[in-house]
Amino acid sequence: MISVSSADLYTWISGFIWPLTRIMGVIAVAPLFGNVSVPARVKIALGVLLAMIIAPTVPAVPALDPMSLQGVLILMQQLVIGLAIGFAMRIVFAGVEMAGEIIGMTMGLGFASFFDPQTRARSSAISQFLALLTLMIYLATNLHLVLLSTLAQSFDLLPISEKFVSNAGIFQLASWGGRIFSAGVQLSLPIVAALLITNTALGILTRTAPQLNIFGIGFPITISVGFLMIVAVLPYLMNPIINLLQEGIEAMNRITIALAPIN
């Protein structure tokens, strides 16, 4: 006769629920998986499927009642870890979107904005275009599968434990968040430089010929130059975006290691 003790039952439940919580945290915010257009049932089904695959390979979890205070604290801790890992990759897309915002504002397309369902805010047309381009590169290079592989490795780098995570991981995530601004400026710099030269030329032209209506000819010229520069620069954006996405994968590993509790 097979007998199952309450300790064994708690271990089985905890060995599935706690990894599932970390996985759902990543799925909730990671690019593609966390998109609001993906139905909640699909996200839950994907999380359960990944948990069924990953849970048997997870190092031994603490033998605690998942409904106890310590069990709930571990559950919340796994959710925070998952959100931090997924947010590390989301920062890459935020940097690309910021580059689009800078380009759009410099071109004079700041008024051409749309509602972005992902961020639930207004976003420029150029920003959404670059975000979709980055998503296509993200899928074409199979980095979404690399993200899932990194998630599975995180259970070895940061095993499930009742110890609290280290503050160094939070500071590491905040430091990585600064990459939004540097990446946005770097990606938009060629187009912004061309528009700066264009605006300088228009300023000189206005001073030499005051009778010209700068508002009548300035906006069409800057918008045209902006689109021409986007067409010219677009083929060269693939490598910088891929490098940025790979930096996001590396940042996920760094943040995971930094979150490890100090013994």
Automatic annotation (TrEMBL):
<comment type="function">
    <text>Role in flagellar biosynthesis.</text>
</comment>
<feature type="transmembrane region" description="Helical">
    <location>
        <begin position="214"/>
        <end position="238"/>
    </location>
</feature>
<dbReference type="GO" id="GO:0006605">
    <property type="term" value="P:protein targeting"/>
</dbReference>
<keyword id="KW-0282">Flagellum</keyword>
<keyword id="KW-0472">Membrane</keyword>
<keyword id="KW-0966">Cell projection</keyword>
<feature type="transmembrane region" description="Helical">
    <location>
        <begin position="129"/>
        <end position="152"/>
    </location>
</feature>
<feature type="transmembrane region" description="Helical">
    <location>
        <begin position="12"/>
        <end position="32"/>
    </location>
</feature>
<dbReference type="InterPro" id="IPR002010">
    <property type="entry name" value="T3SS_IM_R"/>
</dbReference>
<dbReference type="GO" id="GO:0044780">
    <property type="term" value="P:bacterial-type flagellum assembly"/>
</dbReference>
<keyword id="KW-1133">Transmembrane helix</keyword>
<dbReference type="GO" id="GO:0005886">
    <property type="term" value="C:plasma membrane"/>
</dbReference>
<keyword id="KW-0969">Cilium</keyword>
<keyword id="KW-0812">Transmembrane</keyword>
<dbReference type="GO" id="GO:0009425">
    <property type="term" value="C:bacterial-type flagellum basal body"/>
</dbReference>
<feature type="transmembrane region" description="Helical">
    <location>
        <begin position="71"/>
        <end position="93"/>
    </location>
</feature>
<dbReference type="Pfam" id="PF01311">
    <property type="entry name" value="Bac_export_1"/>
</dbReference>
<comment type="similarity">
    <text>Belongs to the FliR/MopE/SpaR family.</text>
</comment>
<keyword id="KW-0975">Bacterial flagellum</keyword>
<dbReference type="InterPro" id="IPR006303">
    <property type="entry name" value="FliR"/>
</dbReference>
<keyword id="KW-1003">Cell membrane</keyword>
<feature type="transmembrane region" description="Helical">
    <location>
        <begin position="44"/>
        <end position="64"/>
    </location>
</feature>
<protein>
    <recommendedName>
        <fullName>Flagellar biosynthetic protein FliR</fullName>
    </recommendedName>
</protein>
<feature type="transmembrane region" description="Helical">
    <location>
        <begin position="180"/>
        <end position="202"/>
    </location>
</feature>
